[in-house]
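Key idea: predict the complex, not the pieces.
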Amino acid sequence: MANWQWFHRLGSPKWLLATLDRWLPWLLSLGLLMLVGALAWGLAFVPPDYKQGNSFRIMYIHVPTAVVALAAYYAMAIAGAVAMIWRMKVADMVMRAIAPVGAALTFLALVTGAIWGKPTWGAYWVWQDARLTSMLILFFLYLGVMALYDAYSDRRNGNRAAAVVALAGTVNIPIIYKSVDWWSSLHQPASIKFTEQSAIASEMLQPLLLAIIGTYFVFAAMVILQLRLQIVLSEGRSNWLAEYATNKLR
Amino acid sequence: MTHPAAMQADNESMFRILHAIFKRDLRVYFRTRGAWLNPLIFVLLVITLFTLGIGPDAKQLASNATAIIWVVALLGIMLSLDALFRSDYEDGTLEQLLLSPRPLYFAIMGKVAAHWLVTGLPMLLASPLFALMLGIPISIVPLLALGLFLGSGILSFVGAIGAAVTVSLQTGGLLIALIILPLYVPVIIFGAGLLQYALEGWSVAAPLMMLSGLLCAAVVLAPLAIGAGLKISMDS
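Result:
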């Protein structure tokens, strides 16, 4: 018989807060370590690209933020679905915690993409490219979800409404992925492939993969920070929280 | 297991509620002229403003026509959505609909279908006028009309999600736009693409099929999200 205890525990903000507090330092320090290592490796030790020179190195920030920003939207929608199906209030909070972090990552991906575009394509913004436009739409999707939950005075209803919109927004995700095929573009086609041989040199790829994993860890840590805030905001009056906080301060 | 006779009764009640709500909403729309006329006037007005902004050069107008028509139609329909559930929410009809044992899914389908008919049909009928104003060749008008009709269905069904989650809020209008406009991206791509393809003389099968497919998906899936949204709005 499968042990479902962990799943039921997830529904308890008290257990969750204690667990998050234990995980946070590990996730954050591991993530930062990986990120710093990957950036040092990518910026200083990888040979320059034969065509783009040194400008390609912004890839070590651009690609991880873009990858995680997309994955974060999925995570947000899945959390929203869990909240709607099982009525888990913790899932509501997770969804709400992911939104600002995902939006920030999307913004970073857009900005680094624009900076990379200038030396490579000669323009900061190129509309012919579908992926730029899709990322921009993704950014707006995040902002819409955040605007909706801010508009509700009741936190719980705001979260539930935002979950509906986040789920509806997942319709947009396949278009983001397919956009590369659908429009003719200036952008190079996606070059990391797991099934075939990658089009990117492996010495360039290794630090990139490390940076992606590191970004996932830092993302998780940021979400945990937000989630702790959400737990405190919605459980602010409960006794266990006051007890937990005094124990912590002691 | 449900008894076959009971299942038949269920099937009947599904379509009965769809039909009843559809008819009732159409009647309400036709008694309030603004509901179907105002979006159309809005579209004509904004097209006029665009023309004044771009200048009288027919060639330049025609090259921007596809984008103008679709963006304006999209805005017109979106603005009309704010009222979709508002009066039913305020006078308690919506609450009765949610409490009713009849399937909410089909009630919503009837409601949004009525809205689609009332906003989409005037757009379809006025499309020769849009073409005339913006210098689109008359031969393309049937495609423009068909595209607008299919597109307005998607816009109504997807937009109703935004209307449902904001109906209990005071700050409806702008918030609906923030939530819903990103979801309209595929519609504008394939809608404007349809006209572009037709103007270039290419086969329009692909964008037409995409629009039809999106419409089918929207009609089937959106009522689920709309229902969830309405329930949340009722709680608050």
